[in-house]
Amino acid sequence: HVIHHSNRLPLRITELCLEVKSAFAQLLREEPENIKCFAERMRDLTCFWEEGESRNSSLHQYTFTYTYQYRNENSSACEVFEMPMLAARGRRLFYSRLPRIEFFAQLHLCVFRGGRELYNRSLFIDQVFLLDPPANVTVVKTGQRGQLNVTWLPPALKYMDDSMMYEVRYAMEGNPMRKETVKATTKLTLRGLQPSSKYKVFVRVKPDGITYNGYWSAWSDPAFGTTPPSDLDPVIVVLILVIILIFFLLILFVLVSLLKKLWPDIPSPEHKFPGLFSVYKGDFQEWLGHSNSSTRPIHAFTEELPSPLEVLSETSLDSDTTEQGEEPLQSRDMDAGLLDRWKEPPHTHWLMEQLRALQKHPQALSQSSLLESQDTYVTLNQNSQHAKEGRQEDDILEESLPLQALFASGDTSLSAASHSDLGSLQQSSGSGRLSSQSSFEYPNHTWPPKGPGYTYMAVADSGVSMDYSPMSSSMGKGVVYANEYILGHRRPLSGQQVHS
Amino acid sequence: MGNRRGHGRGDEDPVRDYADSEMEIPRLFALLLIVLEWTRPGLPSPLRPICDLRVLDHFIKEARDAEATMRVCKEDCSIGVPLMVPLTRVDIGVWEKKNMAEQAQEVQTGLWLLNRAFISLHTSISNSALHSHIDASVRNIASIGQVLRSLSIQDYVPTVSGIDLQETWQVSSAPELFQVHINFLRGKVRLLLANAPVCKQEVS
User: Which positions, given as ranges, span the membrane (chain A) (predicted)?
Assistant: First the structure.
């Protein structure tokens, strides 16, 4: 509402006190000029000044004149009033109000006291606005956590509504204030707030300075709003569950691997000997007898697996036994010798059974240690032809006792054996002298040093033929026969004669 | 041109293929349209109305920068012959009583006067630094004219006798001229643009 008055009518004191008092106080702080002026709306301009001298100067001594620059005419005077009870410490405050104002033109103001100029000032009225604070400040929740929406009404000035700048001040109880400035819009979303907290919000307004300018208005009345409580984002919940699941699986995995280390599986041969432990209660002999229908008792190996055989051959040399010519002769002789010899343990058939069994379960053998000292070895010593004459049965018997035991359960004659895989012995280079040690050795084991005079050959208990170069013999000149010993394929072996 | 080759007209003159009678008329028509577009008479195509006052704010800032630099100029900047400039003062009550046409006329008269004043200032001042500011102000006024045209405000060139001398005054220094320029933009021009009926139609 506009106050229409002429220069002579005094303004009502109550109105002045309510509206203007705070404005005066603010400008007293902010405006450095002597004549302080402000325009509250687009209809009037209020100017005031302080007088510090404690003279008992009367109000009528003062003259307030104004003139617009473009008019080349004398200035006009305006009535001066005194504002009581506002100035402190003996200072007096006088004000005047211009009735009709013109914007965008320069205005000259002068204050005279007793005819002498006291203050003067030139200003543009559109640059000294002091607006009312925004009204209807409301704070509402948005849908999201930590946010609040603040809205307010702009000052009701017709031509200035798009030239406004607002400042929003907000804080939680007892916390420092945070400020945000917005232009040309009457709403603001506060972000980054704490959940479930009560916030106090103030707003003030000022012209933005491009077309119009002025002072910051007073802070509006506070508005309160409470942020919504924080709830867990469902995506975060799902992710946390997934992480927990992965964590548990990891722990499980670690535990299982630890358990495997602490309580390793002890391999049990039970599955290779069906019924041995369940029916016969570990009585190997009985189990053997039951499964093979043999009657000969086994003395030394009732509780042991048949050990792998190592076929060793030894070379003993006379002279230039150059190859082919004598070999058949020798082999024939050896055949005879072997045949004779092999009559002793006629139970090679049993041995073959064992060997076949071993072949079927090669992993059983791989787990056992093959080259322990108690392994038995078959060594074929190649003697000269004289060997066949002397029946070194005693030697043979002593040394080959274990082997005899192996062959003990066999029924068939040696001739049968000669046609079986063991027929390689027939063609072997050795004279057939059996040593006390026999073992089958697997190729991936290192050779134990056996002592001079023996050349080693590994015979693989696999379905594949393996050809081994003989180890160096300390015998010097010797004929070493390398055998190809094949189990299971019944291939005839070829012997090679190697001169060392 | 290749669209005729498939036809069985091999024995005809190949040049004749291009100027086929079926295509000749559309070609002539296209040529005619091009020629007419170039020689289109007078009226510029209607501009999209510039209702956003931030455009004017940009010009106001430019003018304010020029005025700020000119404010410090004291000696070099006085001119011999006073220049006629429009009044910048706005009495809100009086302004509101005028209708749109009057307001537009007042604004355009003022812009015309300012333009003339700047041009004569350009000739009378020798300082080259000032010349750049003067040129910027002239461009500024021309842009404002474009904005007015976009709001369907008809161009108005006042006659010398038709100018209401009540609405003019005289300045005798360059800083004053620049001050008049900025105040004119902030006052009357802005009030006119803010109330342009074209923009109000769009909003409502």
Answer: 235-259
- The amino acid present at A426, given as its one-letter code, is Q
* Predicted local confidence at residue A307, as pLDDT: 66
Question: What is the rounded CA–CA span in Å between residue A444 and residue A421?
Answer: 22
CB atoms within 10 A of CB A415: 13
Domain assignment of residue A52, given as a range: 11-129
* Overall average pLDDT of the A1-20 stretch: 50
Residues A39 and A113 in one domain: yes
On chain B, the residues whose CB falls within 8 A of the CB of A105 are 87-90, 183
* pLDDT tens-place string over residues A342-370: 444 555 566 666 666 666 665 544 444 44
Q: Which of A70, A102, A126 has its CB closest to that of B91?
A: A102
Q: What is the pTM of this model?
A: 0.56
**How many A-B residue pairs are in contact by the CB < 8 A criterion?**
49
Residues 6+ apart with CB under 8 A from A298: A285, A288, A405, A408, A409
Of A70, A162, A211, the CB nearest to B186: A211
Tens digits of per-residue pLDDT, A477-491? Answer: 444 444 544 444 444
| More confident position, A275 or A308 | A275
Domain boundaries, chain B: 48-199
Q: Is B128 or A398 the better-scoring residue by pLDDT? A: B128
Same domain assignment for residues A50 and A122: yes
For B187, the closest of A104, A106, A210 (CB atoms) is A104
Residues of B in contact with A159 (CB under 8 A): 92, 190-191, 194
- What pLDDT was estimated at residue A292? 61
Of 3.40.50.10320, 3.20.20.140, 1.20.1250.10, 2.102.10.10, the CATH number of B48-199 is: 1.20.1250.10
Closest-CA residue of B relative to A106 is B89
